[in-house]
Design a protein that fits this description.
It contains 1 helix and no strands. It is mainly alpha-helical and 53 residues long.
């Protein structure tokens, strides 16, 4: 489990570097107030729980 969490963090940071200023919420499976736990939603640029739609 710890490896998966680490891997998700790494992917989130790489995504943020690849497209600076892009919001990940626009393409996230959890882009809904009840599903997303990120306090920066809907303008998050990196997220540990990101899942592509």
């Amino acid at each position: 489990m710890a490896i998966r969490r680490w891997w998700r963090k790494l992917l989130g940071r790489l995504r943020a570097l690849a497209a600076p200023g892009a919001f990940v919420c626009d393409s996230c499976r959890y882009d809904h107030p009840r599903s997303c736990r990120n306090p920066e939603r809907p303008n998050a640029t990196q997220c540990d729980d990101y899942r592509k739609r």
